[in-house]
UniProtKB/TrEMBL annotation, chain A:
Superkingdom of origin: Eukaryota
Record function comment: Component of the EKC/KEOPS complex that is required for the formation of a threonylcarbamoyl group on adenosine at position 37 (t(6)A37) in tRNAs that read codons beginning with adenine. The complex is probably involved in the transfer of the threonylcarbamoyl moiety of threonylcarbamoyl-AMP (TC-AMP) to the N6 group of A37. CGI121 acts as an allosteric effector that regulates the t(6)A activity of the complex. The EKC/KEOPS complex also promotes both telomere uncapping and telomere elongation. The complex is required for efficient recruitment of transcriptional coactivators.
Organism: Trichoderma ghanense
Family membership noted in the UniProt record: Belongs to the CGI121/TPRKB family.
Protein name per UniProt: EKC/KEOPS complex subunit CGI121
Signal peptide: none
Compartments reported by the entry: Nucleus
Short name of any one Pfam family annotated for the protein: CGI-121
Automatic annotation (TrEMBL), chain B:
Quaternary structure note: Component of the EKC/KEOPS complex composed of at least BUD32, CGI121, GON7, KAE1 and PCC1; the whole complex dimerizes.
Alphabetized SMART domains for the sequence: S_TKc (SM00220)
Gene3D superfamilies registered for this protein in UniProt: Phosphorylase Kinase, domain 1 (3.30.200.20), Transferase(Phosphotransferase) domain 1 (1.10.510.10)
Lineage, broadest ranks: Eukaryota, Fungi, Dikarya, Ascomycota, Pezizomycotina
Top-level taxon: Eukaryota
Record keywords: ATP-binding, Kinase, Nucleotide-binding, Serine/threonine-protein kinase, Transferase, tRNA processing
InterPro entries for this protein: Bud32, Kinase-like_dom_sf, Prot_kinase_dom, Tyr_kinase_AS
Pfam families: Pkinase (PF00069)
Class of the enzyme per the UniProt entry, highest EC level: transferase
Organism of this sequence: Trichoderma ghanense
Function: Component of the EKC/KEOPS complex that is required for the formation of a threonylcarbamoyl group on adenosine at position 37 (t(6)A37) in tRNAs that read codons beginning with adenine. The complex is probably involved in the transfer of the threonylcarbamoyl moiety of threonylcarbamoyl-AMP (TC-AMP) to the N6 group of A37. BUD32 has ATPase activity in the context of the EKC/KEOPS complex and likely plays a supporting role to the catalytic subunit KAE1. The EKC/KEOPS complex also promotes both telomere uncapping and telomere elongation.
Record protein name field: EKC/KEOPS complex subunit BUD32
Length: 197, 258
């Protein structure tokens, strides 16, 4: 199955979170173009998977966006762009899209779709229709979004730059790569939580 | 009548913050209630990630605009200081999420017990041989090093006590464990501020010294271990300790007013 339904703690029950990970994506340029053209059929958060260090990292951004949506405090046009922006530790929206969003050169892609009943669409699309739409439009290999897979995709150097984690002597001094990664994840969560405030 | 019955059944039920009314795998538990806010144990994102939620409810006696501003300011200030500490390599709880308008802050749930508990368990009913207890003295030195690290990165805690430090036990417990092993995690930086003045550092140490003396009177004889480790933890420590002597003479407040 290509699309996973993720259950998060403290998310209103009317929200449903769909998550998929694609490798070897061939048509990132096309997907990027759909976002730029504001094609209403492509209401997804398309995230360059090399910028993600773990499931918790990505899900933190989803949680923040859902919370903003439920409180009516979105800073961007919709919940999907909000997910991308929530990944950033700065409040610069364009910069967040550029760093974390899909670009024509993206080869590993996270797709997140959050559905909830709204005035315009009282009946949100079903999991099956989302799955089918992605299958038809993303040219790539759907893989389970496990931490192990994510770790193989992460570009740690770029991630550390995006979150300003360079020059931390104590972090560089950690020998155990696993521990170091956990610490990086922890620092990222803090940076995201404090974004722009 | 029914209202009183309900109250009797749940004598201390506070209304939950909105975020905690959403579905979760386990219900939140109220851990403590402080003067300013409440602390819940709950979960972050997934059922197996426990977290602490600090909630500052609206204060109906304050002007709403002022109330909102103070709450926001306090949530953000604590989160910023925690995040700064973490980046500079001091072990404090991680910041998971926050909503300053709603008045909550979600933090890592630190395993273990407050250092106060570990010390008291170790002391038991003993009155002798405390000054020769090497394991306990080692714990004192770890406390001194943690406080020194905190001061060296320019953070003043504002309420240092052995209750505001957790002892996080090692992942693998070895045989013959003393219950004093582990990492010191400084918690509750709700009153913390940035500062590099020796005077502020000295007051921080003085508060800890006084709190320690009244919480663990029998262990007062080994408190000097804390200060010794503190002295070795950063360059300016000696000056702060010198200032501590002045503070001891006059008390926490510099001026005689208020």
């Amino acid at each position: 199955m290509a699309v996973e339904i993720v259950q998060l703690e403290h998310v209103p029950s009317s929200y449903q979170i769909h998550l998929a990970l694609f490798r070897n994506v061939k048509n990132a340029g096309f997907l990027h173009q759909q976002l730029l053209a504001r094609n209403a059929d492509f209401e997804y958060a398309f995230i360059d998977a090399s910028t993600i260090v773990s499931r918790v990292h990505l899900l933190s951004a989803v949680f923040k966006a859902v919370n903003s949506s439920a409180n009516g405090t979105l800073r961007t046009p919709n919940i999907h762009s909000e997910i991308v922006v929530s990944l950033s530790s700065s409040s610069n929206i364009a910069d967040a899209y550029r760093r974390f969003g899909v670009s024509p050169s993206t080869s590993d892609l996270f797709v997140v779709k959050v559905t909830f009943p709204s005035d315009t669409t009282p009946e949100p699309p079903s999991a099956d229709s989302i799955s089918q739409h992605l299958k038809d439009n993303v040219e790539g290999d759907a893989v389970p979004a496990t931490d192990q897979t994510i770790q193989a995709i992460t570009d740690v150097r770029t991630v550390r730059k995006s979150y300003k984690l360079n020059g931390l002597a104590w972090l560089d001094a950690i020998k155990d790569e696993l521990v170091k990664r956990q610490e990086i994840e922890r620092l990222i969560l803090g940076g995201m939580a404090l974004r722009g405030v | 009548m029914t209202a009183t019955a309900a109250e009797a059944a749940a004598p201390h039920e506070f209304p939950l913050p909105k975020i905690l009314t959403n579905p979760a795998s386990t219900p939140p538990t109220l851990i403590t209630q402080g003067a300013e806010g409440r602390l819940y144990k709950t979960t972050y994102l997934l059922p197996d990630i426990p977290c602490a939620l600090k909630y500052r409810p609206p204060k109906p006696w304050r002007h709403p605009v002022l109330d909102q501003r103070l709450t926001k300011h306090r949530i953000l200030s604590e989160a910023r200081i925690l995040s700064k500490c973490r980046r500079d390599g001091l072990r404090v709880p991680d910041v998971y999420a926050l909503d300053e308008a709603a008045g909550w802050l979600m933090l890592e749930w630190v395993q273990g017990t407050p250092v106060r508990v570990n010390i008291n368990q170790r002391l038991g009913s003993r009155t002798e041989g405390i000054e020769d207890d090497e394991e306990l003295k080692d714990l004192m030195r770890r406390i001194g090093a943690a406080v020194g690290k905190m001061h060296s990165i320019g953070v003043i805690h504002g309420d240092l006590t052995t209750s505001n430090m957790m002892l996080k036990p090692p992942a693998q417990q070895t045989d013959g464990a003393t219950g004093l092993e582990g990492e010191i995690v400084i918690i509750d930086l709700g009153l913390a501020s940035g500062g590099v003045h020796d005077e502020d550092r000295a007051v921080d140490l003085y508060v800890l010294e006084r709190a320690f003396g009244s919480t663990h009177p029998r262990a007062e004889c080994i408190f000097s271990e804390v200060l010794d480790a503190y002295r070795q933890s950063f360059k300016q420590a000696g000056v702060a300790l010198k200032k501590l002597e002045d503070v001891r003479m006059r008390g926490r407040k510099r001026s005689m007013l208020g």
